[in-house]
Amino acid sequence: MEKLFFVVSRINSVLLLLILLVGLVSLIWMNVNNNAWQRRGAVEVPAADAGSAQSVMLSLGSLEDIPGTDVQMGRLLAQEKSGKFSSGHYGSGEGARNLLFLSGKDKQARWLFKEHKNRILDVTQLSEQGTDTCKADKNCVTRALYIEFVTEAAQTRQGNSRTTLSNIGLSKVDGTGLTVLLEEVGSVLSYRMEDADHLSVLYQKSAEIRQARISVVEMKLLSDREVIKVPGAV
Q1: Where does the sequence pass through the membrane (predicted)?
Q2: What is the pLDDT of residue 92?
Q3: Is there a smaller number of Cβ atoms within 10 Å at the N or the C end of the chain?
Q4: CB contact at 8 A, 101 and 112
Q5: Going by C-beta distance under 8 Å and a sequence separation of 6 or more, which residues neighbour residue 11?
Q6: How many CB atoms lie within 10 A of CB 6?
Q7: How far is residue 108 CA from its own chain's centroid?
Q8: Comparing C-alpha atoms, which of 209, 205, 99 is closest to residue 147?
Q9: Is the pTM here over 0.90, yes or no?
């Protein structure tokens, strides 16, 4: 009887081990399959060319129409290689590295930046009605694009700092004429169209809350004033 119990116990142990092995293999297969699906249409770019500490996968997101124009815009998205997996696993997306613009019937293509090394934090269509309101109004016309981004130089300079300083600029709807109007911005608190021609941006720079007033038509900084000081640490 003792031998029977011993044999049954060994069989149960072997079955449990097999179940664990099957589960582990299934998890690995699902991870590899999901990773392969994420890479469809993506191109791996070496760290030096991507302006990153590790190689990244770049892929073009879906195109969106810019109302009132014959231009479409698409974001070049990036996924940085995860340090936890040396076998080519790519972690969560880290945002857009560039913007692609396709104009006219012939789809004339151009990139916003010459290289894909900057990190784009925000892209918003500006119109007379406000910010991004054209998406819900077919009669609306986009006049310019509001773009917040971090340059490659700033990424290298800031390293592992918790503060990411960005630049704010405007470009024409076809991606040309990008003009940087504010630099070394700590954080953007809000921005809105004051009227048909002027954009107001409330932002923090160092220990100051500042308000910038920008001409959308001329893509020009009209004023930049301090609103209030931010209290220091107690």
Answers
A1: 12-30
A2: 37
A3: C
A4: yes
A5: none
A6: 10
A7: 24
A8: 99
A9: no
